[in-house]
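Dear colleague,

As promised, here are the two records you asked about, laid out in our usual form so they can be pasted straight into your sheet.

NAME FIELD: protein one
SEQUENCE, THEN STRUCTURE:
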Amino acid sequence: MAEAADDENFFSIMKNSLIDALEQDTLSEQDKLGIHSLWDEAQRSNS
């Protein structure tokens, strides 16, 4: 159960970091592609 909470916390932190970066538009196209593939991977492993 603790592991699920850790994952939840990790995703929450990642999401907030992503939102900050997107709002500040500090991501390069390469970063955006990497993030999308990480996000897809996370969604797959999370379901």
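NAME FIELD: protein two
SEQUENCE, THEN STRUCTURE:
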Amino acid sequence: MEIWKRYGEKEVSHSMAHYLQTVALLKAEKGHARVGDIAEHLGVSKSGVTSMLRSLEKRGLVRHERYGCVELTEEGSGFASRTESSRRVLSMFLTEILGVSEDVATEDACMIEHLVSPEVSVELLRLTTFMRSKHPAAANFREAYRNSPRSCKEHEPGACDLCGATCLRDSLITPIGRALQRA
């Protein structure tokens, strides 16, 4: 099966991940998570929360009795904490290593957090840990990266050996690319 077709087969959707993280957060902050609390935190309707909880319950990620508190199962709790950890590592990598603004890093990490494989998460953690270390090679790399040009090497239009036929940087700095960035 092609990779793009498997995208929808992830164990939970982006929305589901946010619901699980919200339940975990509310439990930590208030000691409980109720439908109304979840709805308020996420800015959604109570009926929307109830519908999502049914889906999460079918997957064995939460337990919820009508008008009662929502409880994460062991699997749901594990998923929520792994997703939160993945977001933290991604955000740290984007801000501290790549130098992306905190706002952009937070948004992008949120979009990516539950999509990367465990293997990629572990290697990204390893790379981020090394790059933040005081190791001379890490310090040299950080300095060299900060001073490197923010473009591919010079090339003829449509012939970028790194990006392919359309250089990513060129397409992002055109008027259309700038409009997409603002949208």
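A couple of things worth noting about protein two: Strands lie at 62-64, 70-72. The CA atoms of residues 21 and 38 lie 10 Å apart.

Best,
R.
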